[in-house]
Amino acid sequence: MSAGVRELSIPGVLAFTPRVFPDERGVFVSPVQESAFTAATGAPLFHVAQTSYSVSRRGTVRGVHYTAAPPGMAKLVHCPQGRALDIVVDVRAGSPAFGRWESVVLDRVNAVTLYLPVGVGHMFAAEEDDTIMAYTMSAEYDPDRERAVSVFDSGLALPVPADPAPILSARDRRAPPLAQALADGLLPDYAACLAAAPAP
């Protein structure tokens, strides 16, 4: 059962804080339940098309990633091991919060799960070795539809940790700033993202 949910300053992005059940063996956590999701969104949990996870060493930075829409992809993200500074960026052209970002610390202690609707950008910085980030997605990963904007975009001024030096993929290092991605027509449209909300 969820202990609480709050909406971040980016429309549609939710942070679920589940109850954690500890005992002498360890803990048991349900990162999200459909009843809590439906109560918060007014809609059933989306059809799950894929689950994935990444394992990252301390200093790894992944993002800012988003999926071309339509059809786009909604996802649930949590961190069952390690600790990550998770940052959500509104890259949806026409959104009332366009260019806004918000950060949340994800770890196995607070057990927070983020819901990211279609078109929202996502990145994280691993703060511990062997940090695991788990994803539940409404669509299968398609590399041809994956996009990125730069985590070093001075216009966004994201709080990317500098110590240790960030470890990024070559693709993420080449990612354009948000303004360039907008000018090049690479960003998802806000209205189209709302219309592309995944079916249950």
From TrEMBL:
> Matching Gene3D superfamilies, A to Z?
Jelly Rolls
InterPro entries attached to this UniProt entry: RmlC-like, RmlC-like_jellyroll, RmlC_Cupin_sf
Tell me which Pfam families the record gives: dTDP_sugar_isom
- What family, per the record? Belongs to the dTDP-4-dehydrorhamnose 3,5-epimerase family.
PANTHER family documented for this protein? DTDP-6-DEOXY-D-GLUCOSE-3,5 EPIMERASE, THYMIDINE DIPHOSPHO-4-KETO-RHAMNOSE 3,5-EPIMERASE
Q: What is this protein called?
A: dTDP-4-dehydrorhamnose 3,5-epimerase family protein
Annotated organism of origin: Nocardiopsis mangrovi
